[in-house]
Amino acid sequence: MSQIISLLLVIISVAGLAILLTRKSRSSRWIAFVGTLIALGLTVLIGSLLDAPSESMFSFLVDFLMLGGTYAILSLGLNVQWGYTGLFNIGVAGFFGVGAYVSTILVQDPINVVGAGNESITVHFFNLPFVVGLLGAMAASGIVAVVVGFATLRLRSDYLAIATIGVSEILRLIATNERGITIGNRGIENIPQPLHQCLVIPVGANPAPPCDLFGIKIPQFISLAHYDWFYFLIVLGFLLIAFLALERISRSPWGRALRAIREDEDAALALGKNTFRFKMQSLIVGAIIMGGAGSIVAHMVKFIDPSVFDPLQRTFLVWVMLIVGGTGNNKGAIFGAFLMWAIWSTTSRLNDILPPTLLTPLGKIDVASQLFGPIRIMAIVIALEVILLYRPRGLIAEEKHTSTKIDH
Amino acid sequence: MQLSVQNLVKDFGGLRAVDRCSLEVREGTITGLIGPNGAGKTTLFNLITGFYKSDSGRVIFEDTDVTGRPPYTLFRQGLCRTFQIPREFKEMTVLENLMLVPAGQCGERIFSPWLQPGRVKQEERELFDKTIATLEFVNLIHLKDEYARNLSGGQKKLLELARAMMADPTMILLDEPGAGVNPTLLKKLMGYIERLCADRGITFFLIEHDMDLVMALCNPVIVMSEGKKLMEGTPNEVRSDQRVLDAYLGGQYAAADR
Ligand SMILES: Nc1ncnc2c1ncn2[C@@H]1O[C@H](COP(=O)(O)OP(=O)(O)OP(=O)(O)O)[C@@H](O)[C@H]1O
Ligand SMILES: [Mg+2]
Fold first, then answer.
1. What is the pTM of this model?
2. With the C-alpha atoms ordered B111, B117, B123, B125, is the resulting torsion angle positive or negative?
3. ipTM greater than 0.95, yes or no?
């Protein structure tokens, strides 16, 4: 049953996207968009009714929105840098990964680390609250941006690209090799989640004492399965704050100066703009947001290893999301992220449909490991090319009057 | 002297584009700068405004040595320039192209939209009014909500002038304001420049190949050739000078020989 549902989801998504992209008029595009959403929702709903247990479909949806949300945050961060300022950052994964690691190191409780005591490595974790981890992640990522910016932003623009991808790779190597800090390739497990002990009713024999919040004792009141919903609110909250903050500054004269620099840096310089300062600020703001996304993902999946620096998922995919959604438009950045995440994550559902191995003229191939990667990337690239052909400015293009607040 | 250039040198590899060039621009004038193609006029502008670093020599603007300063600081001192090939901000509206310009906008600081939203809004309102007035002056008001990339070549030249006006500068360097502008528009453009000079006291230093424009508008006229100042004088003196003729003809013969 779930196989049919998954297949339907993919077909509806692709068909909806195709209609969306080929229609010229605005209204029919909206109809296509809303229609696709309704069709997707109905399929999920019917699926969850027919398919026991019904909670599994719903938790799939929450999962989808949560992960999609973290991509939307990344995409917003990239939009400040590339969309507004034209900074070619191809090391998104680096800023993301720094956030993930710094937050984990700050928040992790040493007793959670399996085997930390009996190995020659001494690992330092600080057991601080999640908020400190999140802020630390944002600060650390911002500091990386300052270093990269000072090194490259005065030079020709290609140097930034080289530096960001280089720094991202160096950080990945540090995470792999500095085992005393990061436990290397084994990764860090059991990363604590915010307020987990305060909210989730403990299961098992010995009930944990009620949580002590600034002297007030609160009994836990939600079940383990519902903790994800709470965390979803954190993701959504961060996304919303980032969106509102960016909307505000990008529509101010600050954002106007950024866009001028993107259009023609020399002309902006001739018109009195300290372009270095603006580019630096833009790089830092974007990096801070990306670092925040790293922290949020680390505490969401409760495990990190050097693969958080994966350039395919954390740089390439984010770029596609932004381009598809609409470079220079915060709403587009978010929309593109969810849309591409839908394609990316539903392709993994193909797993249920295809047999585990396929016999081809070239020999037997293992579907899960050998076919999905390529299929997924193909789906993403096809979507990207279709967009570039039919809507080069993205699904929700940059607004004409971005920086004119005055009503006239 | 409002602007004085002393022994400026600029080499591009083996090519000396500006060769110990010295010249002065007096306050309140419309000074012309003419010379054959490749004489080094644009390069001189780039040196004055800090886009290129000179190999030696000095630039003095309003009694301060500004040699080697970054372009944006010169702009804030009141020296503004336009480009030979218009460099409009393509994906921004004409309105935004102009509103961007004034220096020291409160809203350009990243925290102002939160800390002083009232002040940002107030400034934006004043800026908007000023922009509208400027667009009316150069007759582009009907295009205010158009993307700058959609403007015609001549309109882009006007946009460049309007952008310079928004800065309230004391001196504007114009690089071939008349190139590619039709005769009617050119007349208007000359009128604007004259009015800005007379009414607002803005000094103009302009490169131009159109001799009618130079003769009608500029006094004095400086002639540059092979990176050096050849001579300076009234339009009539320049027109009848044998050295100037030789420079132009020599340049053309040299080009024909190649
Ligand atoms: N960035 C550069 N790199 C190398 N050579 C340059 C550069 N800019 C200018 N030149 C050379 O310097 C010389 C002077 O060029 P410049 O642009 O100043 O001439 P110009 O007087 O403005 O000519 P035109 O009237 O055609 O605009 C030319 O020979 C040109 O090829
Ligand atoms: Mg020139």
1. 0.87
2. positive
3. no
